[in-house]
């Protein structure tokens, strides 16, 4: 059996609060890590009126506006799944990559299973913070993206817009891979 080629997909979400189900995923941004111009982005209708005011303030998003302008979650997740399948192809394996992947993956996984009964990424995600710790020997406290940026010097900047942040995270991931792939000596 031929080994599947891994296609790394950087994903960022903005939400109305800390946990899926009780709070809503409001935006999804994604890009192919190695071809960051291959992108997906959408806004979603909220699934509840629960919202942490701080979460909304950070993103500048409005539940009321998204109720009118956002996609129904089933449509959004179907479009996202189609995009993943198109970018990855049938013979390859999609790998979910996130900065603080447990948070983003929990929302994406919940929405995929609630609305489509499947998740193209399976039940795992690759966390950039953990990869950075392993590559650099840093402590957990130094895995904030601002701390990583001091060492890695990315060109992009995060701005709490899901697509921009997914592209920023993809750049961080590529820079960390360069550290890992450098010959020692």
Automatic annotation (TrEMBL):
Transmembrane segments: none annotated. Residues 7-182 form the Exonuclease domain. Gene3D superfamilies: Ribonuclease H-like superfamily/Ribonuclease H (3.30.420.10). It comes from the Bacteria. Keywords: Exonuclease, Hydrolase, Nuclease. One of its GO terms (biological process) is DNA metabolic process. This is DNA polymerase III epsilon subunit-like protein.
């Amino acid at each position: 059996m031929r080994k599947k080629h891994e296609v790394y997909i950087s994903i960022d979400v903005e939400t109305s609060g800390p946990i899926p189900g009780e709070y809503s995923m409001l935006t999804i941004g994604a890009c192919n890590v190695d071809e960051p111009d291959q992108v997906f982005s959408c806004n979603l209708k909220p699934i509840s009126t629960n919202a942490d005011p701080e979460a909304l303030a950070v993103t500048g998003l409005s539940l009321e506006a998204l109720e009118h302008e956002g996609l129904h979650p089933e449509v959004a997740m179907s479009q996202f799944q189609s995009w993943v399948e198109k970018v990855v192809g049938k013979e390859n394996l999609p790998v979910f990559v996130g900065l603080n992947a447990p948070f983003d993956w929990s929302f994406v996984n919940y929405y995929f299973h609630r609305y489509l009964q499947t998740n193209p990424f399976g039940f795992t995600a690759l966390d950039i913070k953990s990869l950075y710790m392993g590559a650099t020997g840093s402590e957990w406290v130094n895995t904030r993206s601002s701390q990583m940026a001091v060492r890695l010097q990315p060109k992009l900047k995060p701005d709490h817009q899901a697509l921009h942040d997914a592209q920023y995270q993809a750049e961080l991931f590529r820079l960390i891979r360069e550290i890992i792939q450098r010959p020692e000596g």
